[in-house]
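hiii, so i know i said id send this last week but things got crazy w the move. better late than never?? heres the sequnce for the chain we talked about at the cafe, plus the structure i predicted for it. fair warning i was half asleep when i ran it
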Amino acid sequence: MPILLLGNKDIDLISGKRNITIRRLWKQPLYRGDRLYCYWNILSKEREKLFEAEVTHVDIITFEQIKNNSELAIKLGYKNSKELEKDLKKTYPNNTKAKDKFQVFEFHKLHVSQWEGSAINQKNIIIKKADALFEMGNYHESSVCYKVALEYDENDINLLNRIGDNLSRLGQFGDAIKHYKKAIKLDPNNEYLYNNIAIAYLNKHEPDKALKMSTEALRINPKNTTVLYWRGLIYEMLTDFEKALQYFDCILEIDDNDPDVWNERGTVLNMLGKSEEALLSYDKSIELCLDNEDDSNTWASKGNTLLGLQRYSEAIECYDNALKIDVNNPIILNNKGVAYMELDDFKSAIDCFTKVLVMYPDNPDAQVLQEVCLENL
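okay and structure toks below
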């Protein structure tokens, strides 16, 4: 019973887009008519059968023959023979002598009713793998798996939504919207789907369309804090800061423990010229954060507010706290340098700008500000 292990790079084989692959010649070579048990090995301790297949054709060739065979490389899903050669050397470092043998074989997937082994719920297995890929940030591969799972049930709302999520993370917002809208036709009272469309439109820089979708989501559930939060962000993009503040305050009446809401509230208050109130919001956000990326952003935002209020020493303290979490952030380092400049501490300012230029030699802000400092030393 030959076993074929499939990983992330074999998505085309799993999806059925390709049915030809290459492996080092096994001790028991494959023959036409052999039954393949195909497993997913994304995690070493988790090998689950994806499908059974029948081998339809086998060629045994040497590594030397593979190296110069561009036609074969393309059939196997590679751009050219050089890419195939590089991958084989990486996968089989001890089998790349000229006469080392490989088997190139084609197979035909068998319907579950023809399986010899125990049957499984293929859709659930594929979804499980797609979810794992999604969590790993492999959004393209995850989308392919979700779409394969969708072939088992084209009306699966959750799958349509997850495909939309993947496409959004890939920056394909138009395609994401199409999948969200298909899901809405099946579940017209789902506020999260309308909200996801609103987010996609916002990322497409179409806030007016985003607002319309947000209105639909809010109509279904006016107390959904996720919908309210994104509605506030939409109004921010529309520069209607009073409206944005209204929605962030509405969330805090329902739940005042979300640091992101307090942070955005601070940003909006700054835009309205209410810097002192903004500082209080940033303080609340910092209080609720646990030394994560958002905490760094909030410390930096508070520092920027203090910089605008000419409270330079306090601003520097905030930037230092932000840099404890986000050590190499050039924007924070530059702003810290500006605060030192305002205190006439040009040597400390130069240290900040030098750190930026070591990491980002072409950073224009650091270049100009460093020159100004050197002139004042």
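btw The domain at 3-120 is CATH 2.30.130.30 (Archaeosine Trna-guanine Transglycosylase; Chain: A, domain 4). thought thatd interest u
miss u guys!!
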